[in-house]
């Protein structure tokens, strides 16, 4: 007890406070707190507007083409197709499941071809399957679907993702604004309690993706239109050449769209009422391998492929600064700072000082998590009874995010020295090897 008192006295002294301040300030107060405040202010603004706005009736009902990328989903793809048939949207929905490598994926191809759309039960729903016999990867499937799409609005969807029945109606209303080339949809984890790994991802999705995009969209700063669930104006997609090769085609396309922001005064909304449900990786190994690809792709896109596009003349100053902060710093630099900071603390600080410092940092991040979780439940969640059960995970969430950030540094090192994006299963090796090297 006396030793703990001596430690606290030393830290609370002038020199101790200075040391403690400089240990915490670079990682927390200077960078993470302002972004958290901006997200919360955006959520408050969205919440206030939603409570006071009068619902509008719209006659805007364009034809919607849903490109569903399929590979090895088997019968699960029929769940996706059924959820699209059952949409409440009164307009036409064209479903284009593209089976990649159909020669080897006969179960998925059979599931698509055997799905029957009853015209009496599901009017204005049309199925146009495409069998792509040679495997070309996800981008190849998306562009094949785009070539056959006839709708004014095009959705890029995963073959193992299902949707709430108001999804299409919620997404489409955003395209009444001619300055909107794309809309980001929201994803939830379907197998929430399949394991502790899926449960932690479910909390991450509602806090770090769903709620964060609501806040960022208020300032027109949505950072990515998810590849598993995004919608685009077909005419705009055709003008910019559709999807591009390599991996992480969702962020790649988002950055390409943003390069037209200043020129045409564009915006990318986030639609929180358009919700898709997907299965998250169930084991720690599967999760880490997924993030190895995701986070390595960030380095490839920001540093190697799109470094020439990231300038204020194309993006506008607001998007340019946001990419510098959230893209370069938070996603590329901060993971290395946190990893190095953690390793140095483990090897340099004495045990009691280390314990006290980590406990203090943990409490700070726990406070942020509790604040975000409370805001999510009270202002954002459309399923509060379901989401409140995630409160059990809040105490562990800061440690989970520490794991993610340290692993992000490993993923970027893998991309720097091994060009990890060329080892992805999202496309055959020969497609990635023949692509332009960056």
Shape: globular
Number of strands: 9
Figure out the total of helices.
18
Gyration radius, rounded? 23 Å
Q: Can you summarize the main beta sheet?
A: 9 strands, mixed
- Unreliable stretches, pLDDT < 50, 5 or more residues? none
Topology-level CATH name of the domain at 31-47 and 152-438: Spore Coat Polysaccharide Biosynthesis Protein SpsA, Chain A
Provide a compact summary of the structure.
This protein is of the alpha/beta class and 438 residues long. The protein is built from 18 helices and 9 strands.
Q: Which key features would you list for this structure?
A:
alpha/beta, 18 helices, 9 strands
Write structural notes for this entry.
The chain is globular. Helices cover about 55% and strands about 10% of the residues. It has helices at about 1-10, 15-25, 30-50, 75-85, 105-115, 140-150, 165-170, 195-215, 235-240, 250-260, 260-265, 285-305, 310-315, 315-350, 350-380, 385, 395-420, 430-435, and strands at about 65-70, 95-100, 125, 130, 155-160, 160-165, 180-190, 230-235, 270-280. It has a domain at about 30-45 and about 150-438: Spore Coat Polysaccharide Biosynthesis Protein SpsA, Chain A, CATH 3.90.550. Strands 1, 2, 3, 4, 5, 6, 7, 8 and 9 form a 9-stranded mixed sheet that branches. The model has no long low-confidence stretch (mean pLDDT about 85). α1 (about 1-10) crosses α2, α3 packs parallel to α15 and α14 crosses α17 (about 395-420). It has about 450 residues and is of the alpha/beta class. It contains 18 helices and 9 strands.
């Amino acid at each position: 007890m006396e030793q703990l008192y001596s430690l606290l006295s030393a830290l609370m002294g002038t020199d101790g406070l200075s040391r403690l301040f400089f240990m915490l300030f670079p990682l927390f107060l200077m960078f993470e707190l302002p972004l958290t405040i901006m997200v919360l202010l955006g959520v408050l603004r969205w919440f206030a507007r939603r409570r006071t706005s009068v619902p509008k009736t719209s006659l805007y009902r364009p034809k919607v083409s849903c490109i569903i990328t399929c590979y090895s989903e088997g019968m699960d793809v029929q769940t996706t197709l059924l959820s699209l048939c059952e949409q409440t949207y009164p307009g036409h929905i064209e479903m284009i499941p593209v089976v990649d490598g159909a020669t080897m994926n006969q179960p998925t191809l059979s599931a698509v071809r055997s799905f029957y759309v009853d015209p009496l039960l599901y009017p204005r729903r049309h199925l146009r399957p495409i069998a792509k016999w040679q495997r070309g990867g996800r981008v190849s499937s998306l562009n094949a679907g785009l070539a056959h799409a006839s709708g004014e609005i095009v959705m890029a969807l995963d073959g193992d993702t299902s949707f709430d029945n108001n999804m299409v109606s919620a997404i489409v209303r955003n395209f009444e604004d001619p300055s909107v080339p794309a809309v980001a949809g929201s994803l939830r984890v379907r197998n929430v309690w399949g394991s502790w790994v899926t449960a932690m991802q479910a909390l991450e999705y509602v806090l770090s993706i769903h709620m964060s995009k609501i806040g960022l969209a208020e300032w027109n700063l949505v950072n990515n239109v998810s590849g598993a669930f995004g919608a685009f104006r077909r005419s705009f997609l055709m003008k910019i050449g559709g999807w591009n090769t390599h991996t992480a085609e969702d962020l790649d396309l988002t950055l390409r769209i943003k390069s037209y922001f200043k020129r045409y005064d564009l915006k990318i909304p986030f639609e929180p009422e358009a919700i898709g449900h997907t299965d998250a990786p169930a084991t720690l190994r599967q999760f880490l391998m997924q993030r190895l690809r995701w986070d390595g792709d960030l380095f490839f896109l920001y540093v190697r492929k799109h470094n020439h596009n990231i300038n204020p003349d194309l993006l506008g100053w607001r998007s340019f600064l946001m990419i510098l902060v959230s893209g370069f710093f938070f996603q590329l630099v901060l993971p290395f700072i946190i990893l190095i900071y953690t390793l140095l603390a483990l090897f340099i600080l004495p045990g009691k000082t280390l314990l006290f410092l980590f406990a203090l940092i943990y409490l700070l991040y726990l406070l942020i998590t509790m604040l975000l979780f409370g805001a999510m439940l009270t202002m954002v969640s459309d399923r509060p009874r379901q989401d409140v059960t995630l409160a059990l995970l809040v105490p562990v969430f800061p440690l989970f995010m520490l794991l993610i950030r340290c692993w992000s540094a490993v993923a970027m090192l893998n991309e720097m020295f091994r060009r990890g994006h060329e080892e992805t299963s999202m496309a055959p090796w020969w497609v990635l090897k023949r692509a332009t090297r960056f």
